[in-house]
Amino acid sequence: MKKLFATGVILLTIMSSYGQQLPDFHFQNARGEVVSQATLPEGQPLVIFFFDLYCDACQQQAEWISAHLDAFQDVTLLWVMYGPITEPEPFVEFKNTYFKDAPNVLFCADGQFMFDIWFGYSEAGSLFIYDESRNFLAKAESIMPASSILKVMGK
Question: Which alpha helices (H) appear in 14-55, and where do they start and end?
Fold first, then answer.
């Protein structure tokens, strides 16, 4: 039933912008460095997770991805938190809990509240999938099992 639901979410939220290029965004990581399309590794698929540190569904998403991290080795996983990083400790703790030694998992914050302008209205738990050329593939308005995300990317 969960797989059927997840597949339905994917199919219902495939946007008319299929193939559209990744927006020219810029966020900040916990060290204050800019994270943008230009700073991401090239030639890899990209999954952007819009999350909140205290969102139960977001924590479930992180558990699902971390349990299948080997399948995402050649995928950039970008976790974007809504709002500025006012207290870095919980932010860093979230990353270390789920993805401590994963170099392809990046965390940043939308301190300028621009995520909705760049990606369209989104709530915590939403995710966006792009191919290795940064063409848009799909948006899920809620969390998705790792296997469903991989399926969208053809893996």
Answer: none
pLDDT, one tens digit for every residue, the chain (155 residues): 455 444 444 444 444 445 588 999 999 998 899 999 999 999 999 999 999 999 999 999 999 999 999 999 999 999 999 998 888 888 889 999 999 999 999 999 999 999 999 999 999 999 999 999 999 999 999 999 999 999 999 98
Identify the CA nearest to 36 among candidates 89, 110, 140.
Answer: 110
Is 51 in a helix, a strand, or coil? Answer: strand
- Give the DSSP per-residue string, 72-120: GTTSEEEEEEES--S-HHHHHHHHHHHHTT-TTEEEEEETT--HHHHH-
Ordered by where they begin, the domains of the chain are 2-152 (3.40.30.10)
Q: Report how far Cα 44 is from the mean position of its chain's Cα atoms.
A: 14
Q: 83 near 111, Cβ under 8 Å?
A: yes
